[in-house]
């Protein structure tokens, strides 16, 4: 692999990682928000618990992708 090609690949990888880190931050924020809503609105517990779990799945998927890219 030529030096310029390797540099371009490294730049693309860094852009992907930054995008994933941003997405991870947003998903973690959503997890926190739904956790708070669960505590504040027990009448909507089922809905917020479902949404909380969905966001946790998203966090796990993004963390897995970040780990794969960092190998």
Number of strands: 0
Share in helix: over 70%
Share in β-strands = under 5%
Tell me which oligomeric state these chains represent. single chain
The sequence of SSEs as H and E is HH
Distance between the termini: 18 Å
Question: In one word, what is the shape?
Answer: rod-shaped
On the 0 to 100 scale, the average pLDDT is: 94
Quickly list its features:
mainly alpha; 71 residues
Question: Describe it for me?
Answer:
The chain is an all-alpha fold. 89% of the residues lie in helices and 0% in strands. Helix 1 runs antiparallel to helix 2. The protein is rod-shaped and about 60 Å long. The model has no long low-confidence stretch (mean pLDDT 94).
Set out the fold topology:
Layout: H1 3-40, H2 45-69
Helix pairs in contact: 1-2
């Amino acid at each position: 692999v030529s030096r310029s090609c390797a540099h371009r690949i490294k730049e693309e990888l860094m852009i992907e990682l930054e995008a994933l880190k941003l997405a991870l931050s947003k998903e973690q924020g959503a997890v926190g928000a739904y956790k708070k809503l669960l505590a504040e609105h027990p009448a909507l517990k089922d809905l917020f618990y479902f949404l909380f779990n969905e966001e946790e799945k998203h966090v796990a998927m993004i963390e897995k992708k970040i780990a794969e890219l960092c190998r």
